[in-house]
Amino acid sequence: MLKEVYYPKKEMFKNPAFKNMCEYKDLVEEFEKDYEGTWSKLAKEKITWFEDFKQTLDTSNAPFYKWFVGGKLNVTYNCIDRHLEDKKNKAAIIWEGDNGEKRIITYLELYRDVNRFANLLKSLGVKKGDRVVIYMPMIPEAAYAMLACARIGAIHSVVFGGFSAEALKDRILDAEAKIVITADGAFRKGKPYMLKPVVDKALEGVDIVEKVIVVERNNEDINWVEGRDLSYNDLIINQDDKCKCEIMDSEDPLFLLYTSGSTGKPKGVQHSQAGYILWAQLTMEWVFDIKDNDTFWCTADIGWITGHTYIVYGPLAAGGTTLMFEGVLTYPDSGRAWKMVEEYKVNQFYTAPTAIRLLHKMGPDEPKKYDLSSLRILGTVGEPIDPTAWKWYYEVVGGGRCSIVDTWWQTETGGHMISPLPAATPIKPGSATFPLPGIFAEIIDEEGNKMPPNEKGLLCITKPWPSMIRTIWGDPERFIKSYFSTAKKDGKPVYFSGDGAIYDEDGYIWITGRVDDVINVSGHRLGTAEIEAAIKKHPLVAEVAVVGRPDEIKGESIFAYVVLKEEDTIAEEIEIIQEINAIVKEEIGAIAKVDTIAFVPGLPKTRSGKIMRRILRAIAKGEEIKQDTSTLEDPKVVEAIIAVVNKI
Ligand code: WTA
């Protein structure tokens, strides 16, 4: 932990939402005094409603909370239509392709493009409540697709383009999607790559998907299935550019986004209309201080929640300009990010610590070659940021002028939960600082007692909030089990995030990372259970346990302990490693590549057969084993495992 405190440079901010900590505390107090009243006031002020809501919060069926009950709205009306009056020619999306190609889409153009896409979906029979899977590269049409669904009340489920056919198939089946929207492929590091063949494979044996809409982006040859596959490029030109928006209820689902949990298959996190869009917009104003003339750049992929909230919904609801890019930040060289900041005069730059570490390593002096004076706020998300990366980000990228907002949140929370306010909060590098006003994030024990400083506890959110997950699609019991069965406060179950955290003496929150079996590789959330299930498909694997191991760039890397069925196969280890990784790639995708495989004679288990993962985590980290191993079924196995790991 760095001890220094960094104060915001006030001159960088004109009229921020919070000028100082007193203003922050005032709003926190207002929420404490009148929780529902304060949310109600904000919802009335920020959302353009077709019909006012009747009740702010309905807790009658907790933890299935309902917000702004009875309210009617459309999210795309809030993201597009209401801005047409005074911003029709303002850039809504600025897009840069992998090859440097550029597109600027104004609000009026976005309105027309989204309407055409919405009409196309309607012409295919898509109705309110139908699920549409979006498997797309980072092109503007991906955003149009999301918004087109929202316009007609269809529920989108975006699947990250790096997931494999198997992973895509699981998500299509779980959501029971009727339509898949994809592209032939796109470009990455100057070369075309393909998506459509993955969709073809995912749909083998699947009969619920009626149509596949293909956006032609890289124009490589693809297979067209008669009667199923449709060219977006051909059909879109004939669509009417006006489409009345569907009147949605506050609580109708807006989208599903699958994410990993500690057990089983990924779960479909379901978000609502009103609560979600309110918080997406508010956090853009509070945390990113978005102003009319700003260019806001979030480098995430739309396949993750960060891309949903801070590339598409948040910036547009706030009437901002969102910069979207295809490719990677390190191609053509490690100056691409900084070149883009200079060229588009980016004001807020939002990325993950893994990207900061990589950019730092590849080009420590690269930012100095560009004019980065437009930057005002630098954001980070996805994992704790280490002091070295933080200092470089602050000093070299931000020139010591910019506020760093270390935002803690999750797929399930919809938007930021704990974060500095850029013009107000004194920052301690590596701390996400304090909960945002209205968010009751607390570090507690299982009974709800607040942890004293410097003692690790469970990071919980003890009151419902508007942008929270509503349920797990099709599995309400799992929703309760995953989030509301670990901790209680005042006898009532509260939301548990899966993260551990610590307060320091000044009440700052320090996230220590997941306390469950979820790992965080390059800011991507993966469940050890899913990876284990994939590895078990190898015919020679008898048992497997996967843990995360600290990694200099990726945050964590994947470490697998594998017990083979026949010991004499050890000679073919290298082949087995390759085969295992091929299976993982097929089942999940390249993002789940196993970095280290240790072939061990057995796993440490309790007498009741439970694998002692804590021991395996410690061995992978090279730490001393503190646990008592004498109660294990076979205490000697620990030494044998250490001997194997030491040889790797
Ligand atoms: C981790 C990403 C430390 C955390 C928005 C959480 C963080 C998981 C931070 C959610 C942060 C996110 N500091 N850790 N600022 N932000 N995390 O659902 O472990 O992909 O539970 O959402 O990322 O990952 P998810």
TrEMBL record:
Cofactor: Mg(2+)
Catalysed reactions, semicolon-separated: acetate + ATP + CoA = acetyl-CoA + AMP + diphosphate
Keywords per UniProt: Acetylation, ATP-binding, Ligase, Magnesium, Metal-binding, Nucleotide-binding
Entry comment on modification after translation: Acetylated. Deacetylation by the SIR2-homolog deacetylase activates the enzyme.
Modified-residue entries (N6-acetyllysine), positions: 610
Enzyme class at the top of the EC tree: ligase
CDD domains for this protein: ACS
Keyword match Glycoprotein: no
Record-linked Pfam families: ACAS_N (PF16177), AMP-binding (PF00501), AMP-binding_C (PF13193)
NADP in keyword set: no
Domain AMP-binding enzyme C-terminal as annotated: residue spans: 530-610
Segments forming domain Acetyl-coenzyme A synthetase N-terminal: 24-79
Binding-site residues for Mg(2+), renumbered to this chain: 538, 541
Enzyme Commission identifier(s): 6.2.1.1
GO molecular function terms listed in the Swiss-Prot or TrEMBL record: acetate-CoA ligase activity
AMP-dependent synthetase/ligase domain span: 81-465
Function of the molecule: Catalyzes the conversion of acetate into acetyl-CoA (AcCoA), an essential intermediate at the junction of anabolic and catabolic pathways. AcsA undergoes a two-step reaction. In the first half reaction, AcsA combines acetate with ATP to form acetyl-adenylate (AcAMP) intermediate. In the second half reaction, it can then transfer the acetyl group from AcAMP to the sulfhydryl group of CoA, forming the product AcCoA.
HAMAP family: Ac_CoA_synth (MF_01123)
Stored PANTHER family: ACETYL-COENZYME A SYNTHETASE (PTHR24095), ACETYL-COENZYME A SYNTHETASE 1 (PTHR24095:SF14)
Protein name, per record: Acetyl-coenzyme A synthetase
Source organism of the structure: Caminibacter mediatlanticus TB-2
Gene name, Swiss-Prot/TrEMBL: acs
